[in-house]
Amino acid sequence: MAETDKTSYNTDDYFTRSRSETGKRSEQARTEPLSDRKPLNEPQPSAPNPAGRTKGPFRTDVKETPPLSTPEAEWIVNSRCAGLYFDRCDLHNAKVLYDLCVKTGQGTTFAGTDVILRCQLHSGMIKICKGQLADAINELGKVKTECEENIMRLERQFRAGKSEQSRDIAKASSPLEGEPTTSGHSSDAEEVHRGTAWPPEARHLRENFVILRGELELQLSVALTRQGMFGIAQQQLRKQHREFGAAWQRIMDGSYSNLDPRTVQTAIGTSRLLGLVDAYRGRFTRALVLIEEAETGLDPLRSLIETQAAQEEPDAQDPAATTPALSANAALSTQFSISLSKAKVLMLRGLYRDGLKQIDPALTSMEQHLGTSHLLSLETRYVKSSMLMLSGRLSEAKALCLDTIELLTRRFGREHPIGLELINVVASIYRLQGRPLEALGTGQTLLSRARQLLGDQNQQTVRYTIQMASINLWVGNYQDGHRQLTDAYATATGMWGADHPWTIRCLAEIAFAEFLIGRLSRSESALVKALTQERDLRGIPAVSTDSEGEDTLLGCTEVEKPVLTILAAVLRFATHDTEDALGKQKEPLQPRIPFDDIDRYKSEDVIIHPDVLSTLELWATLEATKRSARRELVVWVQETILETRKQLEPLGDSHVSTLQAALNLANTLRRDTNTESLSRAEEEYRYVVDRACESLELGPQHPLALSARQGLYLAQLGRGFEDERDELVERFLDILGAQSTRLGNLHPDTMQSRLTTFAVVVFADREQAVKIADELLALLRDDEARAQRLVEFILLEEKAALVYDRSGDSTQALLLLGRLVGEVAVRREGVSEDMNEWEVLLHGINVEAEQVRRRAERNFAQH
């Protein structure tokens, strides 16, 4: 071909050029030895290997040879080197060479074929790997449009009769993939031409474009999923999954020998990703079915790759013949991707032990074949660290996170999305360890970096915002947490819908935040909505009805109905008793259904999700604070949660969530002043203290252990077991000091503990009690903290006034209450949305002040 042909070449030439000329050039490109010169001054993937191959699946040996004689042959070298770089996750060098191939390919016989667009596909995939999702979606969308235009162009030319045989384009149209075969799924255009013979060259080219279009659609779905656009991704994947129906039927039947391996690989990837998206949306049974389907395609894929390799029989001394090696690596990466996705589904489902069993051997194999710094290995390390953290193995999780962050930073820099996920795990670890300063600082840094790198409309940013808000609520920044949750909920609803698991979890957190800032009616409304949506999402049956269709729980409030409905489903799992699910007699819990057969996952198992228990637990905690609470119902719910967590949590009775459930139950029982309840409360408090002290992850200074110790002493006081005065004071002061050191003086737990200590010590050591009260009142005057949790501070000050009154200092009590009446009256003015709450608060303080005043007058009259 003359040099001038490169400038005048157009895609119509596929139907007019000489077959012999193209075949000669294609053969020359395949058999000519490669040069060891660096393309565009870029290094080769690795140094020459005397043995001829590396230990892994990659061919990297390059002999010293004469310069390449054609632009096409040089293009092939660059594209294959780019593929080697990409497989090794050397994204920078891969991007340089792919861009070069796109630029120089237009001047070769490859112009107008799928191989140029395939380089652009890889360029978009590199952007996905780097986390540049918006750019990737834009680029892949343009390439897909161009691909479809080429398909339509070929069909128009076929209709116009421009399909006379002129040259052999089969090899030229796909020099990296070998002879294309059946694509495995058809389009509308194929239906039009059914029964009409396409020229082989045009048919091969068109099939290559069709295969490429499927790959582009899959990678677009990958980018959309990582961005958090699950609905769009799911819609696109379902459409593509239907199109691969014929291919899957042939795979299942064993008649897949003439399928193109790229088609099989794309079909596997589509099923795998669709399963993962279903899991993100809470559809776990369907997710596991799709993951299983993807796994069934692995053996056919390997078989097709081996057949292709045997047919081509590449020269062992020819480094250009890398197609079989690259295909083998692709099969291995597909297998690893399925293992990772399956582990993610199990993690999202809450089956952390099963997820770790799945991911441990996969990670070992990945690091052996791909290396520890490969992105697939690093992402698998992140998922493993997450499951270790959720399992309660905090030290292991933190060590793995820090090690992975170092590997990731050294290879890809500090700003990679996987690095952000690892930092999020570290923040969660600090939260579980009860270290507020570390959790707050890490979470703030993470959220700021995510907003800068990913934007507010990314799923990672939304999740980090919810996590940061939860930490803010925990440390006492109620207003900040409420604002962040409100913003995150609006974004989540727009991105995922109100029925998405993460949106529902955010709504439950909003209910808690509304409660903390004093908006009780809003809190109850949000919690009812969250409970109902949890019930619907998990497929929990509605409350049973009688023969006339009326609710059998007519005595329940609207809040209690969804609680009892969910509870009924929990108990059906726990007791295997569907008829008496709401009864009082509960049989011992049985071990959960093991993960060994997907058909055994019944609806009773699906609903026992950590989020369901967390929402139930939140309802019980808030309900227990009400004077009108149905205490028996609250205790029942908390008992059920505790026993279920003991069975489901990986660490059972020593997991943080299990100990928190036991502490919540003990606190509820202690509020019942009868001897039986106090005795049961003591048992639960001891359980928390003993398990925390035995745990290497928690220890005696963990906030849960400190709170349980204080609760135990209060329960003993309630039963009349009083220690010596000095010992009593020392115990409570010791706990308060430990909480101040671990949590800080302004932490809500420390503030409440300081008030409790004041109330206990005031009758044993008044001087010490006054000192504690003065410290408490000084902290309550902190302007920044008071702005964050005004209602809580007002209630703490009111309780401090009542302690003063009961200890005989009515003057100080009236002084504090009088100040609060004035402040609340001012706050009430002009706040119409919170008028009811402030009105109730003001009324309560006025009533307390009046009672103190009357008691003071009676005492004065008596003396």
From TrEMBL:
It comes from the Eukaryota. Residues 14-40, 159-170 have a biased composition (Basic and acidic residues). Gene3D superfamilies: Tetratricopeptide repeat domain (1.25.40.10). InterPro entries: NLR-like, TPR-like_helical_dom_sf. Residues 1-69, 159-198 are annotated as: Disordered. PANTHER family: AAA+ ATPASE DOMAIN-CONTAINING PROTEIN-RELATED, ATP/GTP-BINDING PROTEIN-RELATED. This is Kinesin light chain.
